[in-house]
Amino acid sequence: MVESLLKLGNPPLSKPLLPLPFQFSLSSSRSLPMSSLNSVNVHRSPTASSFHPSILVFSGGTAFNGVVEELKKLTTRVAHVLPVSDDGGSTAEIVRVLGGPAVGDIRSRCLRLSDQSTSEALAVRNLLGYRLPLDAQEAKLEWYSIVEGEHSLWKDVSKAYRETIRAFLAYFQNQILRRTNESFCFSNGSIGNFFFAGARIFFQSLDAAIFLFSRVSQIPTESLVLPVISTNDRLTLGCELWDGMIIRGQNEISHPTNGSLQLIDKENSSTLPSRIKRVFYMSSEGSNLLHEVFPTVNPSVLEQLRNVDCIIYGMGSLFTSICPSLVLLGVGEVIASRSCAKVLVMNGSCDRETSGFGASCFVTAITDALNRTYGHLNNRLKNNQPSEYINTIFVPKDGEIPVDMKSLATLGIVHVVSVESMKDPKVGVVYEPTSLIQALSNLLKQK
Q1: Residue 312: in which H helix or E strand, if any?
Q2: 433 near 399, Cβ under 8 Å?
Q3: Where is the signal peptide (predicted)?
Q4: pLDDT band at residue 267 using 50, 70 and 90 as cut-offs
Q5: Would you give the distance in Å from CA 96 to the centre of its chain?
């Protein structure tokens, strides 16, 4: 089934599944270069306004999602750079059994960017955004109903889309069955993650899987979802605390669950014994004490950084969502060389990673990550100042993080913009999306 679906031309939909003239073939899709993926993202929407800035956003998979829809009203020329080291939730189970990079944050952003204009688009979005029950047996039974095409989620999904999605779900299932020594747990599993993992393994290419997922979920063709590291390997994030303690795994750093299958509670995790000094990538093998490794940044990320009108450090977990994208060789060099808008969008409250932080602490952490201050001696940038990386800070009104203006001024940052906020019962103070994007629009027009 997979081979036949890849030879599809233009399925009978209001929008083609794979934009012509690009077509997958078994001879080329397994090693699809990123330049090929970007080639379909060069034209602008004919209805776009004359003010159509290009933006690159460093973020994780959750916090920034709340403003993605509003951002599309300003511009769809956005490169979303996301980490691939998350090892929590259903992503952890996929990585444990099948290996490879974490795809949860990428899947989450793709769905937020996906089309919602038709009943079929909504049906596809609901299917790929669906999570199975927490009970393992119930989850397994429901998974079989979905992969066999019998579940009610398939309603309003046309035959072409159904066959495409089911083929990769079935391929994912086949890969699980081949791992006879591992028992896969479907508890709280994301159907989108399963589809994404199936596509990545089939193509042996994370970029190709993102391309396919983007076309299936019909995200704007000018929008890019970029893994900060383009790899088929498993990546593990580590952190070093100021007291010398080493913590292995993003989930253990950010919101540990003690190995249980309980839902992750990002707001009520216990505090760290010491503040985080740095984050880095780790391997299960290595010659040094920390087993530290130095993966290569996705070249497409550097290409976008060199050309966008604005660089944003989005809301989210500072050390496990933002900094993993900043510590890679080359990122700090390119950002420092740019004279564009460089905006830090502050969180509304602190979390386990940033307990007791003021705004200047966020700036220092980002600067240290981009300078690789506490990393390998040969990789450090010694002279770049905070103002070379950040020239504007957005803060939510009534936010819980102190904005220490004097400390910011000593770091060379004086432009702080207060933005309307609202109260979210689950996470506390968050930005009012319209006000945040309006503030960004005003800034870019001034620039």
Answers
A1: strand 310-313
A2: no
A3: none
A4: low
A5: 20
Q: Return the CATH number of 236-294+309-446, one of 3.40.50.10680, 3.40.50.150, 1.10.10.920, 3.40.50.300.
A: 3.40.50.10680
Cα(51)–Cα(41) distance, rounded to whole angstroms? 18
Tokens at 293, concatenated: 């490794």
The model's confidence at residue 257, banded by pLDDT at 50, 70 and 90, is low
CA 189 from centre of chain: 18
Residue that the structure tokens 């080359």 belong to: 330
| The total number of residues written for the chain in this structure | 447
CB 358 within 8 A of CB 404: yes
Which residues are CB-neighbours of 190 under 8 A, at least 6 positions away?
89, 90, 91, 104, 107, 129, 130, 131, 132
> What does the alpha-carbon distance between residue 241 and residue 276 come to, in Å, rounded to a whole number?
4
Check whether 28 has a pLDDT greater than 50: no
In whole angstroms, give the CA distance from residue 420 to residue 431.
6
Q: What is the pTM of this model?
A: 0.85
Element (H, E) at 81: strand 78-82
Give the helix/strand (H/E) hosting 299: helix 299-305
Boundaries of every domain in the chain: 2-31+90-222, 236-294+309-446
The dihedrals phi and psi of 171, each to the nearest 5 degrees, come to -65, -40
Structural contact between residues 262 and 188, judged by C-beta atoms closer than 8 angstroms: no
Instruction: Take residue 11 and report the two structure tokens written for it.
Output: 């399925």
Residues 6+ apart with CB under 8 A from 378: none
Question: CA 73 to CA 48: how far, in whole Å?
Answer: 9
What is the residue whose two structure tokens read 């760290």?
A: 272
Residue 369 is encoded by which pair of tokens? Answer: 């990550």
Q: Which residue has the tokens 């591992």?
A: 182
Tell me if residue 310 falls in helix, strand or coil.
strand
Which stretches of 324-372 are assigned E, i.e. beta strand? 341-345
- CB-CB contact of 395 with 405 (8 Å): no
